[in-house]
Amino acid sequence: MQYSAFSLLKNALTGHRYWKPAWREAQPRDRYDVVIVGGGGHGLATAYYLAKNHGITNVAVVEKGYIGSGNVGRNTTIVRSNYLLPGNVPFYEWSMKLWEGLERDINYNAMVSQRGVLNLCHSDAQRDAFARRGNAMRLHGVDSELLEKEQVRKIAPYLNFDDARFPIQGGLLQPRGGTVRHDAVAWGYARAGDRRGVDIIQNCEVTGFRIDNGKILGVETSRGFIGASKVGMAVAGNASRVAGMAGMRLPIESHVLQAFVSEGIKPLIDTVITFGAGHFYISQSDKGGLVFGGDIDGYNSYAQRGNLPTVEDVCEGGMALMPMIGRVRMLRQWGGIMDMSMDGSPIIDRTPVDGLYLNAGWCYGGFKATPASGWCFAHLIARDEPHAVAAAYRLDRFATGHVIDEKGQGAQPNLH
Questions:
Q1: Which of 191, 285, 359, 372 shows a CA-CA span of 20 to 30 A to 247?
Q2: Neighbour count for residue 34 (Cβ, 10 Å)
Q3: Which residues contact 314 (CB under 8 A, 6 or more apart)?
Q4: Which residues of the chain have pLDDT under 50?
């Protein structure tokens, strides 16, 4: 079914009885050209672009839970391309451009809201760093504006500008950044891939790989063996665990990253704001809840929940930035399993196993990268060569020393 104003009106007049399921409940076949392990945003986007860009439609996406149960439904919905280093800026800007045309492309309302992303600075040194970042962005054709204190005050007068420890001196604004409805991204890509013939197989956990003479033959799952000429892994925080089934040890650690939503309040924050003196970021959802987050939890974990000291730390950051937030009750929180690479940048590359491909190490940047990640991973799988904007995301860079230390922190929780 093609979604449109006409189809909405037609179904409204017929009691909404004729809507079709967004995607088929596919049963696994014996063999596919490509199997994507992981039914999150990156895996679903990869399958869609394999079909759309490369004409490869004999594709299965296998997900151990239900679509949207992983990190794609457990984040703070922020999209941006305000990066510094050459290895990252072209990739995330390509992702930003794909976000801008996504809804028309997949015929689904993903609620893309380019409300702007404002990074606050609180010292002369931080302002200099933001000026450098903004200039690097402009050299790559990315929008950026360095704001003075009074310009920030016009955008967000409710912030704590005169705090003795963390006075706000200005900020770096990317007007094209913003938010996107996270679960709608998963549903939209699932529906778009299904319409092009992709099989989306839920409740199908991969339990191993079948490899012969260094070549992939397929995947062992909880629903039987599925043969494949090529297999792509896009399993976020479970990357190390799944790669271990193929005998690989990845330069990745898994950590929990918590996110929080407050009770609904009247419209207040019409942009995304990050606190430069602590790791705290906040926006407001369409339902009125304040959506915010901060650091990863300081221990390795595969659990989709966090601990209370991190909750306290994040809330302290919110109180320092905007003390009025203390009057708002927190409604709920959740945790996503982050695949933290050692340099803080992702990996999109072939593995030592012929026909097995890796998409991992997204750290804090996984959701905003969804379209470009799928686009570039599909290109790699289809053509066996990296896409130009993802050429730096090699797996062997940790052996050769060609790291992309955007923050120089990687998986070290004490540095976050």
A1: 372
A2: 26
A3: 258, 260, 280, 292, 293, 294, 295
A4: none
Beta-carbon count within 10 A of 325 CB: 21
**Tokens 């990315």 — which residue?**
142
Does pTM surpass 0.90? yes
- Label residues 196-221 b or e (16+ Cβ within 10 Å = b): bebbbbbebebeebbbeeeebbbbeb
One-letter identity of residue 125:
A
d(CA 207, CA 193): 24
Q: How far is CA 372 from the centre of its chain?
A: 10
Angle 286-156-152 from CA coordinates, rounded to 5°: 135
Three-class HEC string of the chain: CCCCHHHHHHHHHCCCCCCCCCCCCCCCCCEEEEEEECCCHHHHHHHHHHHHHHCCCCEEEECCCCCCCCHHHCCCCEECCCCCCCCCHHHHHHHHHHHHHHHHHHCCCCCCECCCEEEEECCHHHHHHHHHHHHHHHHCCCCCEEEEHHHHHHHCCCCCCCCCCCCCCEEEEECCCEECCHHHHHHHHHHHHHHCCCEEECCCCEEEEEEECCEEEEEEECCEEEEEEEEEECCHHHHHHHHHCCCCCCCEEEEEEEEEEEEECCCCCCCEEEECCCCEEEEECCCCEEEEEEEEEEEECCCCCCCHHHHHHHHHHHHHHCHHHHHCCEEEEEEEEEEEECCCCCEEEECCCECEEEEECCHHHCCCCHHHHHHHHHHHHHHCCCCHHHCCCCCCHHHHCCCCCCCCCCCCHHHC
What residue type is assigned to position 94 of the chain?
A: W
CB atoms < 10 A from the CB of 315, how many?
Answer: 17
Give 227's contacts (C-beta < 8 A, 6+ positions apart). 30, 31, 32, 217, 218
Q: Which of 180, 184, 189 is nearest to 80 (CA)?
A: 180
pLDDT of residue 61: 98
* Cα first-last separation, the chain: 46
Q: Do the strands 356-360 and 347-350 form a parallel or antiparallel pair, or are they unpaired?
A: antiparallel
- Please list the residues that pair with 253 across neighbouring strands: 340
Beta bridge partners of 210: 218
Cα angle for residues 225, 228, 234 (degrees, 5° grid): 90
